[in-house]
């Protein structure tokens, strides 16, 4: 009897922990999972934020952490939303396995965002965060 009680208690606890984990992050569509979890790249010029306007903040689509401000967004012509600076401390840089490109991820949840490039001289900061629209969600500033 005690054994059964203990197993039930453990199972209940595990389910609880599992639910807590699920609650931490927003549910993702299969397309979003391809990018955010499996580090894919959306087709150029396909994303909703490639040339979006408006003043506000881009947050992580999975965990809602603030990642980029519209002041730092620029039109790079590359087909993906481009920023020359992240919100301080929001993004982690990691060298890709090929040793060439630098992957950028959300510091809070590890979501794949895209890649960061330097030396292109596109802006004064000479940095381009090339980010998938599917990794982001735009929150317009309130008036
Ligand atoms: Zn995140």
What is the annotated CATH architecture? Beta Complex
Please estimate the helix content.
Answer: 10-25%
What is the structural class? alpha+beta
Oligomer: single chain
Order of helices and strands: HHEEEEEEEEE
Total strands:
9
Number of domains: 1
Biggest sheet: strand arrangement: 3-4-8-7-6-5
Bound molecules: zinc ion
Low-confidence stretches: none
The largest β sheet comes out as: 6 strands, antiparallel
CATH superfamily placement: Peptide methionine sulfoxide reductase
Number of helices, where a helix is a run of at least 4 consecutive DSSP H or I residues: 2
CATH class: Mainly Beta
Strand content: 25-35%
By CATH, the topology is: Metal Binding Protein, Guanine Nucleotide Exchange Factor, Chain A
Q: Report mean pLDDT, rounded to a whole number.
A: 90
Span of the ends, CA to CA: 62 Å
Descriptive overview:
- The structure is a single chain.
- Helices cover 21% and strands 28% of the residues.
- With 143 residues, the chain is an alpha+beta fold.
- The chain has one domain: Beta Complex (Metal Binding Protein, Guanine Nucleotide Exchange Factor, Chain A), CATH 2.170.150.
- The strands form two sheets. The protein has a six-stranded antiparallel β-sheet, with no helix packed on it. Strands 2-1-9 form a three-stranded antiparallel β-sheet, with no helix packed on it.
- Strand 3 and strand 4 (82-83) form a beta hairpin.
- The longest helix is centred in the N-terminal third of the chain and has 23 residues, at 2-24.
- The protein is elongated.
- The mean pLDDT is 90.
- It binds zinc ion.
- Zinc ion binds at residues 60, 62-63, 65, 106, 108-109, 111.
